[in-house]
Structure formats: structure tokens, C-alpha cells
């Protein structure tokens, strides 16, 4: 497999199995959920070894450093060699269960609910 010096970020994110499809990776880029070296990028942005890529998928942020650049999807074992995973561990199930959840489609949270959420997440009051 010939190694490249650069590749499209959406293609690389898909190739190393951070998203299930390339179009999902491109959509994440267009939505601002993919950052390279701290900057939100478009799907065609070129990445190179040493770049830090942050991908937000399903509410969790994956932080990886590009080790090898590939453009085609490979097996999981090879994909693991193409990146260095620096993601924080996922939150404990107890913490996720304690967060308040709204019924889907019930509208925007009230001011009181927003204050409670901010208090739980430790955000400063405005």
C-alpha cells in the first residue's frame, strides 16, 4: 500500500474508522464537528502526519494525532497504527444517568431548566 504525504480530512477520518461512512465524515466537517489543529475545517482540507484531529461523533469527542496518512479504508488493526488516540475516557454511566434529559420534541428548555443544567455542568451563571 503506497503511503501518501497528505489526504483529505473526510477521507482519512473514514479510513481510520472514526465515522462509519465517508459521507458522514464530510457531513461532520461541514457541520463544524471536525477540527484540525484547533480550526474547524471543510471536507477537502489536506492533513499530514503530526496534525491533531478532533472529531465529535454521537456527542463524544475523539482526539487523535495523525501518525500515517491513508485514503482508503483498511482493517481495524492497520487503522489503529495510523493514529495516536488521545481521547479522554468516556464518562461513567452513573454520570450520564444523573444528567437531566428532556423528552424528544418537548420544545426548548425553560429558563429554570437551563439554570439547573448549567449548575449541574458547572458553568458560570450569566
UniProtKB/TrEMBL annotation:
Q: Which domain of life is it from?
A: Bacteria
GO molecular function terms noted in the UniProt entry: DNA binding; ribosomal large subunit binding; single-stranded RNA binding
Family matches, as SMART domains? S4 (SM00363)
Protein keywords:
DNA-binding, RNA-binding
Translocase as a keyword of this entry, yes or no, is: no
List, as start-end ranges, the regions of compositional bias called Basic and acidic residues. 113-126
Q: Name one Pfam family in it.
A: S4
Keyword Magnesium listed? The answer is: no
Q: Name one GO biological process term.
A: cellular response to heat
Which stretches are annotated as coiled coil?
none
In this chain the RNA-binding S4 domain maps to: 7-71
Q: Which SUPFAM superfamilies has this protein been placed in?
A: Alpha-L RNA-binding motif
Segments carrying the region annotation (Disordered) are 84-126
Regarding protein family, the annotation reads:
Belongs to the HSP15 family.
Name this protein carries in UniProt: RNA-binding S4 domain-containing protein
Name the source organism: Nocardia terpenica
